[in-house]
Amino acid sequence: MIPMSLSGAIAAARNENRPVVALESTIITHGMPYPQNLEVARQVEADVRSAGATPATIAVLDGRLHIGLEDAELAALAQAKGVAKLSRADLPACLATGGTGATTVAATMIAARHAGIAVFATGGIGGVHRGAESSFDISADLHELAQTAVTVVSAGAKAILDLPKTLEVLETLGVPVIAVGQDMFPAFWSASSGLRAPLRMDDPATIARAHLARAALGLPGGQLVANPIEASHEIPPQTLAPIIARAQEDAARHRITGKAVTPYLLQRIYEQTEGRSLAANIALVRSNARLAARIAQAMGNAAQEHAE
Ligand code: PSU
Ligand code: MN
To answer: Domain segments of the chain: what residues?
Structure first.
């Protein structure tokens, strides 16, 4: 086992067998500007608590894996410059070199699994980028969902991605993609991508049972829960389309590649929607946090019934 630092709240929750929800930190360091990132990180943690679970924001600080951050650690991370973005390939390297890094969806899943946490809330997962047929840019998040048994609650994948290809890859990898409360796969800032989701489940208990059924079958991998943004916060796809296209052109012109692509596109979209995309992003992460807390509770109840 890699040594982990548990926050006080996480240590207590584990002792008392109470539900825990993992939260990623790349959204804090690379996904939103300061100070909104810190406000949102605190707000999302509060949302998890008020929905009945304990939040575990995950990051590597000075070479140590942290499961749950104390508020001063969260505040320091939100303002730190040059924090590494850690995916599957980078997480062990950062631990070995004593570095500080924020975890993506893939790395947060690995850390959560390591700490025995089954449910994780984020904004949107990484996926297949547009133009992947020539760039081969496919997020490691997709393969992680196929390998690591964590249920990830998202608002789908960002509309900056190629959503049909993202769904195809998830299908190939055998990842259950579960829309909540509707038939369509959501598109992050918009409630519907216009594509049908492969599965639909409307209550946390069913999602929890499906997670446990995968484990009982001995299948590796998790589930992608796709929770649509609430209508009042939605940005219509027609409004976003030209903005995304421009951001994409800018990325190509500036030869942005690899890990830098997603943060670059998000930044350009924030600028061009004058903060509207940020407000939507905040609303959907908060909604995902609340749903994840309910799934974590349901998972605890179902596991208990199973044991009886
Ligand atoms: N979604 C957001 N903001 C983000 C990300 C996703 O709304 O910052 C981050 C997540 O950490 C995700 C990562 O795992 O981007 C994907 O990066 P890449 O495409 O380089 O795999
Ligand atoms: Mn990539």
So the answer is: 1-117, 122-308
- Per residue in 125-155, pLDDT (tens digit) is 999 999 999 999 999 999 999 999 999 999 9
Residue type, 298: A
How many CB atoms are closer than 10 A to CB 229? 25
Bridge-based pairing of strands 64-67 and 184-187 is: unpaired
Q: Token digits for 143?
A: 């393969």
Q: Which two tokens stand for residue 64?
A: 């140590």
Confidence at residue 120, expressed as pLDDT on a 0 to 100 scale: 98
Q: Does CATH number 3.30.470.20 belong to domain 122-308?
A: no
CATH class for the domain made up of 1-117? alpha beta
Q: Express each pLDDT in 61-87 by its tens digit.
A: 999 999 999 999 999 999 999 999 999
Kindly report the protein residue whose alpha carbon is nearest to atom 21 of ligand 1. 139
Domains 1-117 and 122-308 alike in fold: yes
Q: Is the peptide bond before 3 cis (omega within 30 degrees of 0)?
A: no
Helix (H, G, I), strand (E, B) or coil at 85: strand
Closest ligand to the CA of 106: 1
Q: Is 67 helix (H, G, I), strand (E, B) or coil?
A: strand
Considering 144, 158, 234, 259, which one is annotated as catalytic? Answer: 158
For residue 306, the model assigns a pLDDT of 66
